[in-house]
Amino acid sequence: xxxxxxxxxxxxxxxxxxxxxxxxxxxxxxxxxxxxxxxxxxxxxxxxxxxxxxxxxxxxxxxxx
Length: 65
Known about the structure:
Elements lengths: L5 E4 L5 E5 L4 E5 L2 H20 L15
Antiparallel strand pairs: 1-2, 2-3
């Protein structure tokens, strides 16, 4: 399963992370923290709404900040 992560700098500092496929949004002080938070949020979303208990989601970064 390939999902999209859109990470942007927040005006107040830190980063906002969005997964448009699920509508899941989170934040973090660094790109790495925002990515990790988003991965956890998306896993919980999919687990909750699809009934899947074990999900392996890879992470591939492409930065254009």
